[in-house]
Amino acid sequence: MAEAFIPGTRSARQALIAQILVKEKIGSQAGLQKRLREEGISVTQATLSRDLDEMSAVKVKDAGGRQHYRVPEPEEVQAATQGARVQLARWAAEVLISVQQARNQLILRTPPGAAQLLASGLDRALLDDVLGCIAGDDTVLVITASDEAATKLREDLLDLR
């Protein structure tokens, strides 16, 4: 008997979640956790919640009024990403004070209280080569996949101001 493939990356795990949600009507995170365990994947509720958010999964009602998770079609994700990029451009123009680069990392400065807003915009825009953001009160740390990606993002963000 062949061994089952067990996703070792976030992308692979999210692909498995999408496959499950396309085939089955699962109405709770607990139910999805259980289903993932059946596939050999142990995931915390917090991680699952982040996965569903990143995948833009939503709860919809079926004909019988029961709710279940649904993952959007690629075209829907693309439209949402475009909207998020427009929003990021507006927020960057409004709150981005400065951008400093340290190799593959960017330090973004904002007015007090605005860093979370800008980091959220970066996360939702699903920019290529952005691995993640950490936000404080007035500072966002952006980690990119390479020095070159950081340079390009720095230039793009500065062009928005």
UniProtKB/TrEMBL annotation:
Primary location group: cytoplasm
Protein name: Arginine repressor
Lineage: Bacteria, Bacillati, Actinomycetota, Actinomycetes, Actinomycetales
UniProt keyword RNA-binding present: no
Molecular function per GO: arginine binding; DNA binding; DNA-binding transcription factor activity
Presence of keyword Repressor: yes
CC terms in the record's Gene Ontology section: cytoplasm
InterPro entries: Arg_repress (IPR001669), Arg_repress_C (IPR020899), Arg_repress_C_sf (IPR036251), Arg_repress_DNA-bd (IPR020900), WH-like_DNA-bd_sf (IPR036388), WH_DNA-bd_sf (IPR036390)
Species of provenance: Ancrocorticia populi
